[in-house]
Design brief:
Blueprint (H helix, E strand, L loop, with lengths): L1 E4 L7 E4 L2 E4 L2 E4 L4 H6 L8 E8 L3 E7 L6 E7 L1 E8 L10 E7 L5 E4 L3 E7 L3 E8 L8 E3 L20 H4 L13
Antiparallel strand pairs: 1-2, 2-10, 3-4, 5-12, 6-11, 6-13, 7-10, 7-12, 8-9, 8-11
Length: 181
């Protein structure tokens, strides 16, 4: 596996697994605790999630305030643009973002550590996304940040995304009290 810390947010890591292909199809390890530890990711995962979304859907930006989740994300069908935003108030990269295209064809994974908001949009006809989390989801602890917050400035590859009501009404990062995050 190749572990590549991203330039702006080096805590966010893009992972290229070794893919073994032949006439039958392919095989890959998408998680191996010892290899991940060697690559600098010593996360313990406690929950797996799976979503199916149609083209133009944007999910995010989401985080948890007092029980932050690290996420290991991969697209198992289609293609997404995956985004991490640093929401750690004392961080020198607070409010900055990084994005990467993940697809069933490129097999890439991304690790978004605790302390970062996460979101993705679907650029293919549809996409299935699986991700592992380092803490359990707690709805009452969730932070939702406006996907189009101009202070963050994510360059999403969709212009008029399909949003949930919660994401449509999300406040900007500057409006949130992150003192306990």
């Amino acid at each position: 596996m190749k572990f590549q810390p991203l330039e702006t947010l080096p805590e966010v890591v893009l992972i290229d697994p070794v893919v073994n292909s032949d006439e039958r199809g392919f095989f890959l390890e998408c998680y191996h605790s010892e290899k991940f530890a060697e690559g600098g990711i010593e996360a313990r995962f406690v929950q797996d999630n799976h979503s199916l979304s149609t083209q133009g859907t944007l999910r995010g930006l989401h985080a948890q305030r007092t029980h932050p989740q690290g996420k290991l994300v991969r697209a198992i069908e289609g293609e997404i643009f995956d985004v991490a935003v640093d929401i750690r108030p004392a961080s020198p990269t607070f409010g900055r973002w990084e994005g990467a295209f993940l697809s069933a064809e490129n097999f890439r994974l991304i690790y978004v550590p605790p302390g970062f908001a996460h979101g993705f949009c679907v650029v293919s006809k549809r996409a299935q996304v699986q991700y592992k989390c380092t803490d359990l989801y707690r709805p009452d602890d969730e932070i939702v940040i406006a996907w189009n917050d101009p202070d963050i400035g994510v360059e999403w590859p969709v212009e008029d995304p399909i949003l949930s009501n919660r994401d449509r009404a999300a406040p900007q990062l500057a409006e949130l009290d992150l003192s306990e995050a």
